[in-house]
């Protein structure tokens, strides 16, 4: 090898090594998530106590704390077949594909091409060239291009896309938690309506007997016709109120059907007479741990990390842009292509440095900085919202638990009052107006107690959701796991390997049967009956 060629080769190698060295220049600011100073304890005090350190975290299947087999089965169906959850998982897969697209810009791009052309001129054309009237041209070639990433603009774009994929994984976890909480809350509401309907039925039976008593009193001229009218009004208004609750129950049942990927027309849950849930023990933990439990907080933090990378990309636009191209092949007016004399090649490089663009690059950098600060503000707002939701949950569960215990005592008192006033009326001592007042108060108190109990269980579910439902930021896929395929992978492209707990069915057509019935598992209150009213009217 001549000295001249050796110098050229050394210069080329040095250029490539220099390019790789410069590519380590990262212009993005050093990223560090904000560190918030938060209180050490919660202000709201819930009726929950942590027994051991092992109980400070919620299980991922937190709904099992309510101890209802039917709810457990519906939650499993939701996690497997809910269309909104499936769509959220697909958005994560799409984000992983964008990571591969961005990373491809770091690698050389290679291409092949071939062509053949056959031209014929008219032999009678005026001023025709006196040569061959037919001409054949064939060629094939290869192309290569590569852009050295001197200022890490491409690398920052790849990192931003990886962080975007992590954001979508957190969004999937939040969507799953929200849907699971919505299903549990709707199911609790359904059982609350069942308990109300049972109470209305019981009261209607009582009022029918009371109406019969007033009619007997009227026949014996021991009571005025006004008492009969009052008894009839009480009976009919209660029957109307029951119909309203029945309609609300049907609407709630329809919502449960949609959440479990079923048509409401084929979905029916057998009613119960009482609410049989267990009161869950919800560990609130400490504020610093909350930031690790909330998927939406993790999503906001990943969005902030992406905005930080965009600053590096905007900065790189101020520096020179270099790209390399090379091509080669064979061409000939015939088919004897594989001949050195018919070879062709080209190579080159382009260099571009912005000089004056009217403030374009500076405006883009200013925009990137502002967008980053906006994400920090959004992240802080999300953290504050998460603390507020936990405080709200603790306050609600504490007050509703106390209210529910007080109302249970009020129910006992009003039931006793209802029976005593009816006994006095039958004995001719009391008035029916007093009996009517006791009946209204008893029914209102019993219905209100069920409503408060329903809200208490729903507040438990809301608190669990506010605490992240057993999720942890460690469950997010790593930056490397965000890649869905390797550069030389050509199989298993339809569905990448699941990572970060985001796993969905590869066959969505399996969920196109929307006529599924409700699960057959027993409810927590199956076999339990409502406490009977001690009716003096029967004696």
TrEMBL record:
Membrane topology per record: Lipid-anchor
Superkingdom to which the source organism belongs: Bacteria
Chief localization: membrane
Signal recorded as keyword: yes
Subcellular location: Cell membrane
Signal peptide as annotated in the record: 1-24
Keyword Ribosomal protein in record: no
NCBIfam families hit by this protein: outer_NodT
Protein name, per record: RND transporter
């Amino acid at each position: 090898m001549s000295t001249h060629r050796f110098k050229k080769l050394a210069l080329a190698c040095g250029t490539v090594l220099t390019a790789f060295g410069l590519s380590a220049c990262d212009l993005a600011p050093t990223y560090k998530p904000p560190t918030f100073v938060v209180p050490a304890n919660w202000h709201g005090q819930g009726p929950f106590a942590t027994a051991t350190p092992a109980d400070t975290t919620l299980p991922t299947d937190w709904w099992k704390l309510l101890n209802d087999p039917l709810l457990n089965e519906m939650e499993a169906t939701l996690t497997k077949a809910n269309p909104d959850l499936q769509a959220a998982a697909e958005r994560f897969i799409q984000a992983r594909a964008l990571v591969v697209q961005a990373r491809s810009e770091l690698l050389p791009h290679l291409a092949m091409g071939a062509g053949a052309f056959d031209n014929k001129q008219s032999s009678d054309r005026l001023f025709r060239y006196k040569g061959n009237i037919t001409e054949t041209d064939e060629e094939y070639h290869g192309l290569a291009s590569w852009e050295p990433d001197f200022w890490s603009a491409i690398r920052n774009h790849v990192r931003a896309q990886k962080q975007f994929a992590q954001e979508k994984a957190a969004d999937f976890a939040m969507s799953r938690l929200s849907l699971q909480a919505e299903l549990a809350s709707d199911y609790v509401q359904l059982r609350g309506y069942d308990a109300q309907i049972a109470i209305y039925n019981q009261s209607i039976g009582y009022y029918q007997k009371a109406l019969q008593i007033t009619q007997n009193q009227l026949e014996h001229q021991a009571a005025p016709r006004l008492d009969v009218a009052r008894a009839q009004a009480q009976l009919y208004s209660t029957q109307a109120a029951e119909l309203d609750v029945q309609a609300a129950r049907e609407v709630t049942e329809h919502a449960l059907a949609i959440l479990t990927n079923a048509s409401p027309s084929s979905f029916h849950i057998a009613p119960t007479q009482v609410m049989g849930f267990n009161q869950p023990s919800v560990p609130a933990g400490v504020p610093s741990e909350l930031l690790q439990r909330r998927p939406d907080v993790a999503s906001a933090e990943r969005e902030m990390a992406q905005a930080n990378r965009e600053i590096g990309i905007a900065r790189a636009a101020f520096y020179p842009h270099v790209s390399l191209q090379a091509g080669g092949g064979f061409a000939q007016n015939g088919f004897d292509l594989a001949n050195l004399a018919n070879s062709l090649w080209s190579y080159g490089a382009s260099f571009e440095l912005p000089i004056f663009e009217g403030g374009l690059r500076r405006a883009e950098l200013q925009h990137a900085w502002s967008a980053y600060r906006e994400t920090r503000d959004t992240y802080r707002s999300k953290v504050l919202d998460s603390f507020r939701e936990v405080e709200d949950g603790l306050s609600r569960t504490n007050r509703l638990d106390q209210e529910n215990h007080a109302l249970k005592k009020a129910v006992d008192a009003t039931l006793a009052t209802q029976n005593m006033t009816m006994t006095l009326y039958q004995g001719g001592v009391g008035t029916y107006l007093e009996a009517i007042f006791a009946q209204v108060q008893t029914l209102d108190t019993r219905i209100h107690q069920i409503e408060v109990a329903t809200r208490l269980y729903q507040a438990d579910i809301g608190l669990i959701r506010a605490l992240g439902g057993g999720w942890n930021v460690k469950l997010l896929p790593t930056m490397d796991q965000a890649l869905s395929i390797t550069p030389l992978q050509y199989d298993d492209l339809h569905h990448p390997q699941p990572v970060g707990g985001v796993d969905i069915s590869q066959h969505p057509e399996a969920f196109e049967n929307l006529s599924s019935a409700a699960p057959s598992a027993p409810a927590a209150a199956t076999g339990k009956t409502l406490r009977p009213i001690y009716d003096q009217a029967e004696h």
